[in-house]
Amino acid sequence: xxxxxxxxxxxxxxxxxxxGGVAGRRLGPLRxxxxxxxxxxxxxxxxxxxxxxxxxxxREMLLSLAAGAIMTFSALCFYAGLSWGRVAILSPVSFATxxxxxxxxxxxxxxxPSQLAVAGAILIIPAVVMVSRPVRTPRPFDRRDSERRLxxxxxxxLSVCAGGGFVxxxxxxxxxxxxxxxxxLLIVRSVGGVLGLxxxxxxxxxxxxxxxxxxxxxxxxxVAAAGALLIVSHALLIEALDRGFLSVVGPITALTPAFTVxxxxxxxxxxxxxxxxxxxxxxxxxxxxxxxx
Length: 293
Fold this sequence. Notes:
This protein is an all-alpha fold. Helices cover 80% and strands 0% of the residues. Helix 3 runs antiparallel to helix 7 (152-176), helix 4 (87-108) packs antiparallel against helix 11 (256-267) and helix 5 packs parallel to helix 10.
């Protein structure tokens, strides 16, 4: 079950990456990140009101505040990379960082998955890079994107920061106690929304670039969709961590780039190379080993 939940997390995160990245190129990373956090906070708040769940004690709330600050930093790095850089660079490097760190941290915490699970996790880690390896394509970004594109060093730095931040977020979730349900996510997303609104208020003196009303509305809808998908993925992540090992769940969530590549192929018409197809085959083999283990 933990394998299936981890896979569901990867699928929802992959779709959220595509929708959030498209929105970020029009609205900018800060507005996109803030909108994603506020959408998530609203959805989880409605759920908690309907189920009458408590936010927990003082310790849980303090840890949730810390998790919110970590997630805000990680999400801002990630969406900045998606907005100003290349998705084919950001996705594999970020999630390869997640895969390597979560497997290592899980082992250091005393988790001992089976030999088959270890083999599957080790097989998945290089496959993540194979699946999302950048492909040279004659199709360029639009003019505004090309003017704002990051260099390779900037893309790599943002990728590592985003991946490392998400691993730290998972570790804090474990410390909170994932068996208590998704209530901490309300604080996590609220912190991100408040920090984002504060940052937007500080830079508000700079007039935003004008955009056509239609595309602007579509970008806002994409932000809302990304926020909803992320809150679902994090709720599934909590359930997966409660049922399984971090050293197994973490690498499976690192499969997200496979679904990001697929979404980019369908919605953005990006090319999928033979190496990426081979990587997907290796990923399937790794999943089989994880499931058998």
